[in-house]
Predict the 3D structure of the following.
Amino acid sequence: MPIVWTDVPEANRLLETDPLALLIGLVLDQQVKMEKAFAGPYELKQRLGHLDARKIAVMDPDKLIAIFRERPALHRFPGSMAQRVQALCRAVVDEYGGDAAAVWTGARDGDDLAVRIKKLPGFGDMKVKILVAVLAKKFGVKPNGWEKHAASWHTVADVDSEETMAEARRQARDESKGQSRQELASHSEGSTEMPWAALRGARGTLRVHPARRPISALPAALLAYRSIDMLAALLTGVLSSGADRATFGRTSGAGH
């Protein structure tokens, strides 16, 4: 089944022929339209003049961010995505000698394949399942036991037309909401850690510290941040500077 995830034939061919482009496209596939995410590797290659994991891994991070920010920006959050793509390339170089395809060609079985993908920066549980499905359905990569690690819902692995792309978008939204609800449900009220991923789709009561302040106590400006990386970075800066510690229940006083 050919890849038809973008309106640009060259971008689709790149995804089919360049394993690193496939990985980068999946990393970029969040909080933007799928077509834009998967056209990203092709546009990045046009701007860089290459799509070489070794070269990207050692680039000046600020230069790579600037390239992501060139208009039109490669992503809604070009800074954080540039950092994530560079981290991905470094992992490919360090773990697989710069050969992105080795992530799956060297897998012993489905369990090993899932473990290898999960270790890549930018790949959470959902993306592991999606990539396993893509590898099986688009590239015939089916190590023993792959099925239990593949997405059971309609994903880009099943896209072969505009209609199936629309269905993949709907399923992605539903799965993302479901994951957020699960993370909220499993989060302990006594935890001192913020479940960042759960904030993506969450509104309502979320206990974040022993002081049991709900998410509604967070400054309203923070809730406008839809990038989890940006929100985490902002909160880290706030807490480390000592500002607004009481808001997050991290004062050193005994009144808690």
Observations:
- Residues 182-228, 236-256 have pLDDT under 50 and may be disordered.
- The chain has eleven helices and no strands.
- The longest helix spans residues 162-186.
- The two ends are 58 Å apart (CA to CA).
